[in-house]
């Protein structure tokens, strides 16, 4: 069976306990590696990644004219002249027809 282990956090250098229950959970999930950060440092890291993730998810939108209906629209990619651009309504119709 599992026994509590004392590990050292790679971020703050403090010791933390990897409990028998946590070890069992890791084994059930198939995780091969022990945690390398204490709970406080893991929580801080998750919060930082969440904040940064929101910032990187903002995409630049480009103005375009729908090739099917002529309506002005915005798309999350730079339009190229050799490819048709569709507004969301026309794109949905074309996708449904396939």
Automatic annotation (TrEMBL):
InterPro entries linked: CxxC-x17-CxxC_dom, Zn-bnd_dom_prob
CxxC-x17-CxxC domain location: 59-94
Superkingdom of the source species: Bacteria
Pfam families listed in its UniProt record: zf_Tbcl, zf_Tbcl_2
Limits of the Probable zinc-binding domain: 3-48
Name assigned to this protein: Zinc-binding protein
